[in-house]
Design goal:
The protein has about 525 residues and is mainly β. Helices cover about 10% and strands about 40% of the residues. It has a seven-stranded antiparallel beta sheet, with no helix packed on it. Strands 21-22-23-24-28-29 form a six-stranded antiparallel beta sheet, with no helix packed on it.
């Protein structure tokens, strides 16, 4: 009798053990189970859409750390703007644009070191409006392009300076204005040989200037090619398609055989304008893109991958700007990808609610980086807006930088040592709405904006947005690779504690073995 009583006691302990382990299962968070009745909703994986238009789902949900290294303003009492910039051989930068003096705009150059400290500045021009829109490094200094009223009316303006800022040569080359300047690697002519300059050497250090000029039937696009000696190689005009009026060419993308060009075609509703010309300026194809509202283009970038051994199928280019056609807000950022024959391969409108526009574009190792402005940032009436996408234009992350005022970064380049330098205009410190030239250095050699590298430095002064959620406190110690744990967990790809259909929450294999062992001992005791 005593043995049977002891056995029953052991059996009771076994049953209690089972109850305890089952009760512990209730304490396991519902998100670690696949129970559809769990109170906490499971992490949902956004659908990955694949249409030719629209905004795709975010794939890389961890934004890189792009800490603000420094920002500087420069200018006088008038309205001042930086429109372009270039790295200099001494580790600094040259920013160009215009500065207002006595009611007139003068061409403006500011040389800074790698930390944003001004080393020298210079203004060029006379009465009227004189502006620099583009700058490129030459073998012995810099080439500047823009517009000048010096000879009466608006004229294309070309200035050559030394590395010390001293003017070597200045000239106007005809009625109109230049909005873009690019140094290229020459290209080939119809014979397949490199196009040569007057000295007989291949034009592997040529320059293309693009903008607008005046014509009898409107104001067409304008191209001027300079050879390696900075002498005119050819010039041509490009008319907009039928049903359009004036044309503005604002972006140049050199290719192996010519150039992709982008800008605006003026009509009942302005539209984006995309062209391809050969190395001698002959139009290969031209097209417009846009909707019923106003659409504008400010920048473009090649889609050819920066990765070694990239496929030739990467040919084509992406234009960037702004759209009011079917936009979610009053104005959205706008991206359009063209194939090598001028076909539209995809179109995106990033930004969401509010007003956004994109002013610069560059290729990165795993996609593209665009900069512009947005009134959806946390700092001022408009903030600097940095957008990263994958190769399909799908938004990976977006960040905001700025002051408590109105901020507009215009150009952006890769900075010495990693990261990026943005330039433009800010109204911070202005009582009358006039702005100062603005320079903003973000990221460093450890940022992962371009190639998915490791991040770690603490950010200061910027806000990152991923999948529509804004975080004032920057994340640290994350990676930007698409396979990091944070990204996988957010996409619902991390295995749960119990992923077998019908499993008891929290009741794992170990608990079951212990309970069965105790139960077996109890049964043996009963039989004896």
């Amino acid at each position: 009798m005593e043995k049977r009583t002891a056995a029953l006691a052991v059996l009771a302990v076994s049953l209690a053990t089972l109850v305890v382990f089952a009760s512990l299962g209730a304490l396991v968070p519902a998100s670690a189970t696949d129970d559809p009745a769990a109170e906490a909703p499971p992490v949902e994986t956004p659908p990955i859409e694949t249409p030719a238009t629209g905004t795709l789902a975010v794939t890389d949900r961890t934004p890189p750390e792009l800490p603000e290294q420094w920002q500087e303003t420069d200018g006088g009492d008038g309205d001042d703007t930086f429109a372009d910039l270039v790295r200099t051989p001494d580790g600094g930068y040259l920013a160009v644009g215009w500065t207002e003096r006595d009611g007139n705009d003068d061409g403006w150059l500011v040389k800074i070191d790698g930390e944003g400290n001004e080393q020298w500045s210079k203004t060029l021009g006379d009465s009227g409006t004189d502006r620099f829109w583009g700058v490129a490094e030459t073998d012995d200094g810099y080439l500047l392009a823009g517009r000048s009223d010096e000879d009466g009316g608006q004229n294309g303006w070309v200035v050559e300076i030394g590395f010390d800022g001293e003017v070597v040569r200045e000239r106007t080359v005809g009625a109109g204005a230049f909005y873009a300047l690019a140094r290229d690697d020459g290209g080939v002519g119809e014979s397949g040989d490199p196009v040569s300059n007057e000295s007989g050497t291949p034009s592997d250090a040529g320059y293309l200037l693009a903008g607008m000029t005046y014509g009898s039937d409107g104001n067409p696009g304008w191209l001027l090619k300079l050879d390696g000696d900075h002498e005119e190689a050819w010039r041509t005009t490009v008319s907009t398609p039928d049903d359009y009026g004036d044309g503005r060419l604002r972006a140049i993308v050199p290719t192996d055989s010519g150039y992709y060009l982008a800008g605006k075609a003026v009509g009942d509703s302005d539209d984006g304008w995309a062209l391809n010309v050969d190395a001698e300026g002959e139009t290969e194809w031209a097209t417009t893109v846009g909707g019923p509202g106003r659409d504008d283009v400010w920048a473009a970038a090649s889609v050819s991958s920066t990765t070694e051994g990239a496929s030739p199928e990467d040919d084509g280019f992406v234009l960037a700007g702004e759209t009011e056609s079917d936009s979610e807000g009053p104005r959205d950022g706008w991206l359009v990808k063209f194939g090598p024959e001028g076909e539209v391969e995809w179109e995106r409108s990033p930004g969401g609610e509010g007003t956004q526009w994109l002013d610069s574009a560059m290729r990165t190792d795993d996609g593209f980086l665009f900069t512009g402005s947005s009134n959806q940032g946390p700092h001022g009436s408009a903030d600097g807006y940095v957008l990263a996408t994958d190769e399909s234009g799908e938004t990976r992350w977006e960040s905001y930088y700025g002051t408590a005022a109105w901020d507009k970064p215009w150009p952006a380049i890769r900075a010495h040592g990693g990261g990026y330098l943005l330039a433009g205009k800010t109204t911070m410190g202005s009582d009358d709405g006039d702005g100062d030239g603005w320079l903003l250095r973000i990221g460093d050699g450890t940022d992962g904006a371009g190639g998915g590298g490791t991040t770690g430095a603490e950010t200061t002064g910027e806000t990152a947005t991923v999948d529509g959620e804004t975080s004032e406190a920057p994340a640290t110690d994350r990676t930007t690779s698409s396979g990091d744990t944070t990204a996988e967990a957010m996409q619902g790809e991390t295995p749960t504690a119990s992923d077998a259909p019908g499993a008891v929450p929290g009741f794992g294999v170990g608990a079951a073995l212990i309970a069965l062992l105790v139960l077996g001992v109890a049964l043996l005791a009963v039989r004896r």
